[in-house]
Amino acid sequence: MTINISGIGIDYGAILPELVVAGTAIVVLFLELVVPPDRRRWLAAVTVIGLLGALVATIPLWGQNRSAFGDTVIADSLAVFFNVLLIAITIATVAISPRYLHALDLDYGEYYILILGATAGMMLLAAATSLMTIFLGIELLSISLYVLSGFARTTLRSQESALKYLLLGGFATGFLLYGMALIYGATGSTTLRGIAAFTTAASSNAAGNVLLLLGIGFLSVGLAFKASAAPFHMWTPDVYEGAPTIVTTFMSVATKSAAFAAVGRVFIATFPSISSRWYFPLALIAIFSLFIGNLVAITQDNIKRMLAYSGIAHAGYILLGVLPGTAQAFSATLFYIAAYSVMNFGAFAVVTAVAAGGEQNADLSHWRGLFYRRPFLATVMTIFMLSLAGIPPTVGFFAKLFVFQALVNAQIWAPLIVAVIMTIVSFYYYLRVIVIMLAAPDEVAVEKRPLGIPTSTVLGVAGLATVVLGIFPAVVLDWATRAASLHF
Amino acid sequence: MLSDYFPLLIFLIAVFVFGLIALYLPPWLAGHLDSAAKDLPYESGIVPRTGARRRFAISFYLTAMLFIIFDIEAIFIYPWAVNVKGLGWFGVAEMAVFVAVLLVALIYVWRKGALEWGS
Amino acid sequence: MVVGFALVAAWEIVTAAGVVAFRKPMYNALSLVANMLGLAVLFLMLNAQFLFAAQVIVYAGAVMVLFVFIIALINPESDVALPPRGNEWIYGAVFGVIFAALLVSLLFNRGLTGRSGTLTPEAIAAVGNVQTIGIALYTKFLFPVEVTSLLLLIAAVGAVYLAIRRIR
Fold first, then answer.
1. CATH classification of the domain holding B34
2. Nearest CA in chain C to A138
3. Any idea of the CA torsion for B72, B76, B82, B86, to the nearest 10 degrees?
4. Rounded Cα distance, A67 and A11, in Å
């Protein structure tokens, strides 16, 4: 018996960016085996070169609509949008890594392999159009991040962080998988295209299909966990605090972005016909995230925990743009994700630079008078804090503005009111950081610990981007609008 | 169909019954003698010095973990193997890529010394 | 058939209760092995031979070996029972009842309709269960299968990095 292999839809061009990233991981793995330990920082250079290659491979896919491998992946503008974002985040992370890893005596090549593995998983998640690939993308990024959280093998906090993330993450994966199984049972398809065809068909009465709705519910729990949205956020502060700061920097922005790519593909593109069914639970998750994230952040004295709760709150803002269920509103979400990535990466990168002398420096009391000791770090941190709070003329202001506009257009009032009030609440804890940095230090001892060119470049670019995009947001918004027009 | 497995069921029952017989028939036939020496792990051998319950080396864990990884590889090969003729050279290429990536994993594990025991 | 299912179902409930009820971790793990073997029999009764093999080889075999090793690793006195029960079982009972009520209410809900696909039991029996899965895996799901190998590679790197005694 011969098997028909013509209908598989093999298209290597469509997955070339992911292939390049995975290939780079394998190259770095071989190099790690042969390169002597004191030369390991060159692995970072190889990693960056590979990522630049992936960037080159992904740009030509913009504007295309190439569904490949039996509808399991797609190369479209949304995938390119996230690929560019994720590759940029990874390049910035890898650029500031060697110095930090060296300071902690952690310069092992496995770090770059796992970072590349996580990036490949996230890119796959952003391009996934099948339950199978969504699951594999999430697992690939999760397993890499479980290990990365515990990358400081001998530090108890890091081990604790990894264990908590693994156990709770495994639990969330159970929900995710159960949800996928139910959706498959209800619709008879694993591809989003097939599922969408089932739910839009009038004969199938998808809105009354309990099996399907329960499946969507469980799937949402799994995705909300990865995006660290409340009430599935319990792991976030502990994991963010315990993991090496550089890993926290990476996963706080990259994981959230990738998770929302999947949220967009599932809710906006696959289930628009039953939006009345998922609107309420998602609105509830958004409101919970806004409340818990913003209110608990006020009480935090550790900056990593404070940023963790702020990240939960931002998951709420990002989710707001999904609620209307339209491509137009989703473009506001995409803009928010891009803005959040820049400013939150910057904020955590500053924490990394300050903490390079030791992880205990994440305590806010240590930041007292930072303006006098390290003026550059304190200045860029101020920009990121203002942006996270949403104060013009930063990109964070327009991000919130666009999302709120989308809610007004869709006449969604309750979540909007919560979001506005919580934004005002959030001023307190973001501005508090600035006030602490401005406070007169106990003793003025100028630290002569240079940042190094990569770190200051990354911080400078992030700070500049936060301001420039705040003045000219139109370019990114245009990209976001084009990427948000999902069609399959 | 399911009745095909009836011999298997009989076999399972036989295994279970034989186990019970082997466990309980000898003491019943031979009677029972109790003494401290009889309770030792090796009745007339080496005298144990410490308890048998002690921490396993982490190498066991690592070996078990790697065993799972390559066990899953084997499970993937199984449905490929029954279709190898139908899939033809295309299938061979598919499996070659799959195995090659895991070969990289094996090389890594081997070169890192994760398979060395106790050194 | 029904009698067989009832027997295995009873076995599943008893062993699942054992997983949570025993106070010695090793007994919990062994109950889980028994439970997984029962699940394998259920797969066999549904004519899912491939799942049966995977369940026995991967779960009851490899994964449970890992579980037992981990218990031996972190709890050398695995004969020593856990501390006596506190109040936490109340939460478990409450959530268990809620979840059971949800499942029972689902069973009586008429909206609970699955979609029957093209692969009927007869269609599968004509080709063979393992063959059908193999064809699907290596044509339709080619890309996910290849991604799985990358996932396993990353898992191997992570496991070795975290667990090896002296990293080089």
1. 1.20.58.1610
2. C151
3. -170
4. 8
